[in-house]
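Example A, followed by Example B.
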Amino acid sequence: MFTLMVIYKLLISKNYDGYIINLADEHINEYVSPSDNLIEYVTHFTGSNGMALILKNGSSVLYTDSRYFIQAEKELSNDFKLKKMGIDENIYEYVQTIGGIKKIAINYKNISYSRLNDMRSKFEKNGVEIVHDDLTESIWPNKPERTYNEIIDLEKIKSNTFLDVNSNENITGSNYMDKINKLREKLSDDQVFILSELDSISWLFNLRGSDIDYNPVFYAYSIISNDKAIIFIDREIERKDVEIKKYSEFYDFLKGVEATRVFVNSRCNAFIVTELGEKKVEVSDLIGELKSQKNEIELKGFELAHINDGISLCSLFEWMENNIGKTEKEIADKLEEYKRMLPGFISPSFDTISAYGPNAAIVHHRASETVVESKNLFLIDS
């Protein structure tokens, strides 16, 4: 309740009728690190999809999808009411029902430009203005620091280290400058491409990290033009012909970008677009087009990953047949143990869902101490 009181006071002082918190960081990642999860801090909800609306009149609601209905009902703070997407009235209908709402703030850095556009147009039909304001520091004074882990340079790993190929190429099958030059072919001299999506930056520069759990990415931004390639990152990396700047310098640098046309991905945060000027920004997934064209080395990597995953699951099933009575968590841990035995494994891509009996109805169930027996269904998703 104390956190909500802080928000109510901020709304009054800034003359806002409400504040929206979207479950996202400024890179609009599918997974959000604990240091960026303002939704969890304010509402106690730990799912991966949610949007909270706090109104000055004391109404506080959280919207999430059907994967998290059961989980949200268990976790939500008593100060929040659950709104079920696709069942209850949507956020626009809810605000209209409340009445008297004229101005709602949201942090533009934590919502994609395409989603903000849709939100603004729908709210404006009801006479509600959407404005940018980042209240995070005021709401969350002891916000934890982000984790910055080691960067892996894929240019230094040969493809034949893990794959059965007669090649001396790196494990990606392509040099980072080749990728940058292919991207440049899509740009004219007065155009730039701004990357804020961590997976795209990792792919373009042939680098991997682990700053966010279950994701081989690192915090960075990048700007590509025909004469410059810039990466904003707080780690030391070796990349010839690439200008390396501090991560914290990105938004200041953005103010000086001069181009007749700026291309961004559909997941680009709305603050970047509004800072550049919406009229000269074009949403176009130039990187996605290049990423979708897989080379021989990448296809071999897919094949190996599927084979190794199958081996791990077969090993687990045999182990389970001889170890009835283990817990959900023990089974999940054993599967990861088998995966780690095989070459090329780095980490799981998500927290293994190991669920017995009624727990299998919880879509994103977290493995517990529930004992798995042979008299009910057992679900595993890894």
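Example B, a separate protein, is given below in the same form.
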Amino acid sequence: MIRLIQFTAVLVLTSLLVSTTRAGMEIPIWAVARDYFDHPWVLPTLIDAYGGFLIFYLWIFYKEPRATGRIVWFVLMMALGNMGAAIYLLIESFKLKPGAPLENFLLRRKT
């Protein structure tokens, strides 16, 4: 299961990095901001995305033992979205010892 999590996180992170880089090279985000924010689907899409980021962050909040880690990851999740989530999954998955149970990945670390 850990390998599947790592594979999926790398796939998502790579896809997002490639697609945002390509889009940014074609046209900067600020050049389309006015048309973008006038579209009626922007608000529901942003609510959906940031709602998902917040739900994922609740797991990070549970897992991170210190306030500094919680604050840093909140900022990263809100700024990077699913890129931040993929990075967190990769960091946490590579901290595991070989053969460690999935519970060690999912549950809070001992301080």
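On Example B: Residues 9 and 86 are 5 Å apart (CA to CA).
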